[in-house]
Amino acid sequence: MEKVGVCDDFVNLKATELRLGLPGTEDGCEEEKEKVSCGKSNKRALPETEKEIESTGKTEASPPKAQIVGWPPVRSYRKNSFQTKKNESEGQGMYVKVSMDGAPYLRKIDLTVYKQYPELMKSLENMFKFSVGEYFEREGYKGSDFVPTYEDKDGDWMLVGDVPWEMFVSSCKRLRIMKGSEVKGLGCGV
Amino acid sequence: MNYFPDEVIEHVFDFVTSQRDRNAISLVCKSWYKIERYSRQRVFIGNCYAINPERLLGRFPCLRSLTLKGKPHFADFNLVPHEWGGFVQPWIEALARSRLGLEELRLKRMVVTDVSLELLSRSFPNFKSLVLVSCEGFTTDGLASIAANCRHLRDLDLQENEIDDHRGQWLSCFPDTCTTLVTLNFACLEGETNLVALERLVARSPNLKSLKLNRAVPLDALARLMVCAPQIVDLGVGSYENDPDSESYLKLQAAIKKCTSLKRLSGFLEASPHCLSAFHPICHNLTSLNLSYAAEIHGSHLIKLIQHCKKLQRLWILDSIGDKGLAVVASTCKELQELRVFPTDLLGGGNTAVTEDGLVAISAGCPKLHSILYFCQQMTNAALITVAKNCPNFIRFRLCILEPNKPDHVTSQPLDEGFGAIVQACKNLRRLSLSGLLTDQVFQYIGMYATQLEMLSIAFAGDTDKGMLYVLNGCKKMRKLEIRDSPFGDTALLADVNKYQTMRSLWMSSCEVTLGGCKRLAQKAPWLNVEIINENDNNRMEENGHEGRQKVDKLYLYRTVVGTRTDAPPFVWIL
Questions:
Q1: B77 to A82: CB separation less than 8 angstroms, yes or no
Q2: Which chain A residue has its CA at the smallest distance from B77's CA?
Q3: How confident is the model at residue B540 (pLDDT cuts 50, 70, 90)?
């Protein structure tokens, strides 16, 4: 039928598709969502060829199968909920907003590209052209008017640097670089 | 019975609750028809286009509870476009106009809007129960109207709906005077939840028996909620990540121990497996366990939990449990009646998580099993024959082998004999879903043996029209037949037009039926709505001489007493 033609058109369109994502990244989950119906056919493979595929399938990864519309018969609600999980677990980036007191607009950074606090601090310092001073466990940040803070899952504003890095990444919802008189209460331990 | 006054007969009818029985009663004689229709309180409508609200209310003016189903089943798998239909608005408008004392509304696969929910909330002062399953088209604003306006709300049960979460304050819209909640299920909401409002609501609902939380409710909030509601019978846990040593976890452990009525457990939408042990103390009471969304919990933790669940009747799980895990289920859960094993790897190319061995183990170990939905990578005829021998009591048997057309992986034969054994042994089989490599032979078996079969789902199966004919001729109780990607065409479709009068609906997609065949069918059967769904512009259905060769992509036909529907979108052509 005409289905093969439809398939080709679809593949060509993909090159011109506008997507959110870094150039050069192939979004695996997007592919799953592209329901192309060229995989289905009423023809059945001969039993011999089926056997062949069976025996080779064990030693090598099976070739990527064309997606059949509506198959397997799993409710879209269920499929979608696994999609979100996959995105999160494959580290599709943990973007959080960063605001700086006095700056006209906010920025966004991906926390998953950093391995520890110093890297994050350097990046923020470069982005907003400031410096945070030195971190002390008891007194917080000393030597600067700027203090990095973040909003955690409970909605509380916390000082960046107190908790282990992994815990910070999983609980940080947004960042705010505080400045000026507000800072005295948090950072300077007076 | 005719010597008794009407009130006595009506009183007797009160004890007859099943819809089928009441339908039967109404056919006995005119006076019984009359008494029955005035006393009928609950009506179930399997296809919202088979009847219209005016005629419904004309016959049953004292209706209190209405169940409506909209889109065909294959809509669950994206085979039906969103705008196809199934709108609840005209129903609610008509019910509101009639000033009915509606108390309960249950909808499945329908399009529900915020406008509909608002109208619903304002039109029925006694409204108590709203259950929405697989619906779409509304937002949390609609929920806010329900919360605010339904003073006696008992049940708000949202199951697997697509809801646009406006992150509003719908939970705070329940007035302080609302203390009647029995069921609150919002697990499918994706957004933030106002935890304070939720806790206050739960605390002032002493009758709350069923609480299902969404992803946004973290573990410490769960602990507080369980302390407020130790009477809970049915719990859906939301987000379950935590560090096992923390204070919240200890509080949760203590709270769980107090929930001695807890029988049903589900959710774990985001779960850290180490925390499952908090639930071990109440596992021996559980009759229902749904871990089918808990993708992060793997084999050994699942097994540890299940080993405590000796009273389990219903288990929904992911195939990550493996054959080994299913063997544990088989040896532990002797009361098991219903099992569903869902696939984790939806592309079907990866690990052989569960195989025919798991299915055989379950059939051998669980004598009370009557319903199964099993997704797997491979199957054999021998296994199915063994399962049939072990479990002749199946009512629902749904097997989905992930790769279409896959034969018996040992013998390379079609799976006709295996499924044949199932239908021959299971004399009470009402629902069957087929998969794997299948020829016309399996349909001959089905036509011969599946005398009670009401619903049959066919995909990538059969060789010729004979297959479909076996089913249409043999299965006298068939109500819903849904077929995709199978070589059945006009001959089978048109062989017995009157058969469709005894069925609710027929779905055929990517089969061999032609436009000409469908037109002939529509001509022969004016009491059928024959719908052609055609989204692809390239395949535009045209009035030309080639109808005999123009294949129809999607055909949906259903009996109706109210003729062609008027709300069909442009890509649906009703013949």
A1: no
A2: A70
A3: low
Between helix B140-149 and helix B114-123 the angle, nearest 10°, is: 10
Is A72 in Cβ contact with B402 (below 8 Å)?
yes
State how far the Cα of B273 lies from the Cα of B290, in Å rounded to an integer. 15
- Dihedral angle, C-alpha B567, B569, B571, B575, nearest 10 °: 10
Q: What is the pLDDT of residues B83-112, one digit of tens each?
A: 899 999 999 999 999 988 999 999 999 999
Q: Check: CB of residue B170 under 8 Å from CB of residue B192.
A: no
Of B188, B295, B485, the CB nearest to A82: B295
Residues of chain B positioned with their CB less than 8 A from the CB of A85: 270, 295-296
- Predicted local distance difference test score (pLDDT) of residue A32: 37
Cβ pair B79:A45 closer than 8 A: no
- Substitution target from A8, A62, A77 for chain B, most B beta carbons within 10 A: A77
CB B547 within 8 A of CB B516: yes
Residue in A176, A184, A181 with CA at minimum distance from that of residue A124: A176
CATH code, B21? 1.20.1280.50
Owner of token pair 């003016």: B61
In angstroms, the CA B138 to CA B121 distance is 14
| SS3 track for B27-42 | CCCHHHHHHHHHHCCE
Minimal C-alpha gap between B556 and chain A (Å): 16
Count of domains for chain B: 1
State how far the Cα of A40 lies from the Cα of A46, in Å rounded to an integer. Answer: 16
Q: Does A3 touch chain B (CB under 8 A)?
A: no
Q: Is residue B23 part of a domain?
A: yes
pLDDT greater than 90 at residue B559: yes
Distance from CA of A61 to the nearest CA of B (A): 8
Domain of B10 in residue numbering reads as 1-40
Per CB-CB distance under 8 Å, the chain B contacts of A51 are 412
Closest C-alpha among B282, B274, B330, B333 to residue B302: B274
Let me know if B418 is exposed, middle or buried by CB neighbors in 10 A (0-12, 13-18, 19+). buried
CA-to-CA separations, A68 to A34, B347, B460, in angstroms, rounded: 10, 10, 11
**Token couple for A124:** 């923020």
* DSSP sequence for B457-499: EEES--SSHHHHHHHHHH-TT--EEEEES---BHHHHHTTGGG
Long-range contacts of A103-108 (CB under 8 A, 24+ apart): A103/A128
Q: How far apart are CA A130 and CA A100, in angstroms?
A: 10
Q: Hey, of B161, B239, B344, B346, which one would you mutate to test binding to chain A, going by the most A CBs within 10 A of its CB?
A: B346
Domains with residue ranges and CATH for chain A? 95-181 (3.10.20.90)
Best of B76, B270, B440, B513 to substitute, by most chain A Cβ atoms within 10 angstroms, is B76
Measured between beta carbons, which residues in chain A are less than 8 angstroms from residue B269? 81
B457 found inside a domain: no
> What would the two tokens of residue B369 be?
């099993």
B34, part of any domain: yes
Over residues B149-195, the pLDDT tens digits come to 999 999 999 999 989 888 768 999 999 999 999 999 999 998 888 99
CA A145 to chain centre: 32
3-state class (DSSP) for residue B79: coil
